[in-house]
Design brief:
This protein has 247 residues and is of the alpha+beta class. It has two domains: 13-160, no CATH class; 171-246, no CATH class. It contains twelve helices and seven strands. It has helices at residues 13-17, 34-42, 69-79, 126-144, 149-154, 164-167, 171-192, 197-205, 209-212, 215-229, 233-237, 241-246; strands at 26-31, 48-49, 56-57, 62-67, 84-87, 103-110, 113-120. The protein has a three-stranded antiparallel β-sheet with strand order 5-6-7. Strands 1-4 form a two-stranded antiparallel sheet. α7 (171-192) runs parallel beside α10 (215-229).
């Protein structure tokens, strides 16, 4: 007689809230750096229509995994059909109140247990901002229960600090920077050792425009030009005695 196979217990309640979200419920959030945002604001056409998240942003933006409002609500309903949230502070009419920073504290209750969460619209205005505040607060409060904690660990959705992956340049950018630095150093040495004015002009005209624009390269050219324009000791020896007296 075959022994029945024990099926793994299916998590319920608060335990279910901590279960990992399936890939189809995980969205991608673009997180541009300050420099990338400024570049896009200066020239909107430098952005791209992202195939990953569908947004329009800088081509080098890093994406973070996160669980959206709908997916989280679905999970909360699976955990507790009577789950609820309420604002910590309300106005005289009973409506949720935002704090001076435009954020809102909420109390999320699941399976009879309540925990606080904070949401912010991150600069958005109007009705969409209110929905953003609520969704953000729910994600923040649900994280206190362990919901999508693995995704929060990889990167804070609204944190100001950037991870090393955000700030470290790609290898091709590092190679380009190294090559440019080498070109600058080579140009400086060549200019500083130019034999005469003609050689100096020839070296300068052969440099790339971006190398010519470097401050160290410009200084090396100007300093060598001044040095070459001064008479040498041999040239002083060739000056007639009478001219030396007049001088």
């Amino acid at each position: 007689m075959n022994k029945p196979i024990d099926k793994p217990a299916v998590p319920t309640g608060l335990e279910l809230l901590r279960a990992p979200f399936p890939p189809n419920q995980i969205s991608k959030l673009p997180k541009p750096t300050k420099k990338q945002t400024e570049a896009l604001n200066a020239d909107f056409k430098t952005g791209i229509r992202c195939k990953l998240c569908g947004g329009w942003h800088h081509k080098d933006v890093v994406h973070l995994d996160y669980v959206g409002h709908a997916a989280l609500t679905d999970r909360l309903l699976d955990c507790d059909i009577e789950w609820n949230w309420d604002p910590v502070v309300v106005d005289s009419g009973g409506a949720p109140m935002l704090d001076p920073n435009g954020g809102m504290w909420i109390r999320l209750t699941v399976c009879g247990l309540s925990r606080l969460g904070y949401g912010h619209a991150d600069g958005k205005k109007g009705g969409d901002a209110i929905k953003e505040v609520i969704g953000d607060a729910l994600r923040n409060a649900a994280m206190r229960f362990g919901a999508a904690l693995d995704l929060w660990h990889k990167g804070d959705l609204h944190g100001d600090e950037q991870t090393e992956a955000d700030t470290k340049p790609p290898s091709d950018v590092i190679d380009e920077i190294s090559a440019f630095t080498a070109a600058i150093n080579s140009a400086v040495i060549s200019l500083e050792t130019a034999d005469d004015g003609e050689a100096l002009r020839r070296i300068w005209s052969g440099l790339r425009r971006d190398v010519q624009a470097d401050a160290k390269v410009i200084k090396a050219k100007d300093d060598r030009k001044v040095a070459l324009s001064k008479p040498t000791a041999d040239e002083f020896d060739d000056i007639p005695y009478d001219m030396e007296r007049v001088a």
